[in-house]
Design goal:
The chain is built from 14 helices and 21 strands. The protein is an alpha+beta fold and about 475 residues long. Among the domains are: about 85-290, Vaccinia Virus protein VP39 (Rossmann fold); about 300-395, no CATH class.
């Protein structure tokens, strides 16, 4: 790895000669592989794995398998996540103890969002946002696979949330950064690095924070993180948040054996740095701040825009003749906790009734990519169950006939290839499962089964491993 000379010099000054040499050596080693289990779907633990000490559901793997060819990865039984990033679990267990409305502002591809949704107390709502349209689709895919219904995925600029009048108890800002902490697994991050880019990133980060700050309730928690080493994007920005926006930095209990590094910027406020030569993981910086100012609320422009959008939506909804049949409510466990609606004229959505008003606010003021559980879509003469339903932890799987498939069949299904079902399998919609975990739907028409797996999510590789890829049994 050929690191930029200016990066070497700056980081040496930040850490000192001895620490820099240790970090430089660590960057030449392969990063450890780690996963985080989805305890709502699976209680298994990977064989031979070691626990990630700051995250109860996280594990280091002894080898890095080809995750693409593990059907249970696609079933949402676990998420492949870098271990340092799992420190978010420790933060949330310390400061988010009651039902909350949380925003993950820069959320793609979804590692911290799926962790946040798992860590939030029951009765909470997570809004996961990504500003880049293509990355927001990846975020939605991962949140659907995770299967928690109390989620909204959006594709918006940070400033849009204030215009829409949204308010949050917790905001996670894992801001775009210069990516120094990702150098050993992302060659592009190395090639794009420059001192000027560090400066541009710091300016962008402050704009993002300034735009979203009015949406954090007074007394609310901001979790600020980057995957970079320099102080400009880290300690300097935390000081700026505290002094300019109005916040206090909060401590998080850490064990000495974790070798988490503290403040390197000359300040006394608590921050948490994960350096690859000291901790098993990639480079990460995280700080927790409580909002002390009363700055917030929405402007008149935001109120006008939200009102107009809501009226436009209501007008469109009035032309919609479709109704959700009562039997579709049975497709979900605990169906009484959901509010059902028709979106885009033909899509049936179930959303937790507790947050119905916030759902409507998001639908009228933001670009919603996914929300709740998409039950199904009207296809000509019937309601076709949606993949979101198959992935949901609240799917009432007993409603549908199930076809348990072999490993080879599972990979074929995930490639969106045709399946041959047993002759006694009923016609209609069938839930395909691997080791009891749903993979998605097919429509059995007798002589064939039409594969309903999302086309854009399919495994594109034609390779089939000689042995089954299984992270968990």
């Amino acid at each position: 790895m050929n690191l930029p000379a200016e990066f070497i010099e700056r980081t040496r000054q930040l850490l000192g000669d001895g620490e820099w040499e240790r970090l430089s050596e660590a960057l030449r080693r392969e990063a450890p592989a780690s996963v985080r289990m989805n305890v709502r779907k699976c209680s298994s633990v990977p064989d031979g794995a070691l626990p990630v000490p700051w995250c109860k559901a996280g594990f280091y793997l002894s080898v890095r398998p080809a995750f693409t060819f593990d059907p249970l990865f696609h079933a949402g039984c676990y998420y492949v996540q870098e271990a340092s990033s799992m420190f978010l679990d420790r933060v949330m267990s310390r400061y988010v103890a009651s039902p909350s409305v949380m925003l993950d502002l820069c959320a793609a591809p979804g590692g911290k969002s799926t962790l946040a949704r798992a860590a939030l107390p029951e009765g909470s709502l997570l809004v996961a946002n990504e500003v880049m349209p293509n990355r927001s689709q990846v975020l939605a895919e991962n949140m659907v696979k995770w299967g928690h219904p109390d989620v909204i995925v959006t594709n918006n600029d940070p400033a849009d949330f204030a215009e829409a009048g949204m308010e949050f108890d917790v905001i996670l800002a894992d801001v775009p950064c210069s990516g120094e902490g990702m150098f050993r697994k992302d060659a592009t991050a190395v090639s794009e690095w420059s001192v000027d880019n560090v400066s541009l990133c710091r300016q962008r980060q402050r704009r993002i924070l300034g735009d979203i700050w009015p949406c954090l309730k007074p007394g609310g928690i901001l979790i600020y993180s980057t995957c970079t080493y320099n102080r400009e994007e880290n300690e300097d920005n935390v000081a700026w948040i505290a002094e300019t926006l109005g916040a206090e930095a909060l401590p998080v209990d850490v064990e000495p054996g974790w070798a988490v590094t503290g403040n390197l910027g000359g300040g006394t406020f608590p921050v948490y740095r994960f350096l690859p030569h000291r901790t098993e993981g990639e480079g990460l910086f995280m700080a927790v701040l409580r909002k002390t100012s009363d700055d917030g609320g929405e402007g008149e422009l935001g109120a006008r825009k939200r009102g107009k959008r809501h009226k436009d939506k209501a007008k469109k909804a009035g032309r919609n003749p479709l109704k959700i049949p009562r039997e579709m409510e049975g497709w979900l466990l605990h169906s009484g906790r959901y509010s059902l609606s028709i979106e885009k004229e033909s899509i049936a959505v179930a959303f937790p009734a507790t947050f119905k008003s916030m759902y409507e606010q998001a639908m009228s003021g933001l670009k919603v990519v996914h929300a709740g559980v998409v039950l199904g879509e009207w296809k000509g003469k019937d309601w076709q169950p949606n993949h979101s339903l198959a992935m949901s932890a609240d799917c009432n799987a007993a409603i549908f006939p199930q076809a348990e498939v072999t490993y080879k069949q599972a990979v074929a299904y995930l490639r969106k290839e045709a399946l041959s079902l047993p002759g006694d399998m009923p016609r209609g919609y069938v839930l395909v499962a691997f080791h009891g975990h749903p993979l998605g739907f097919v429509k059995n028409v007798g002589n064939r089964a039409n594969n309903l797996y999302p086309q854009e999510w399919r495994i594109r590789s034609g390779y089939l491993p000689e042995e089954e890829v299984r992270v968990i049994e």
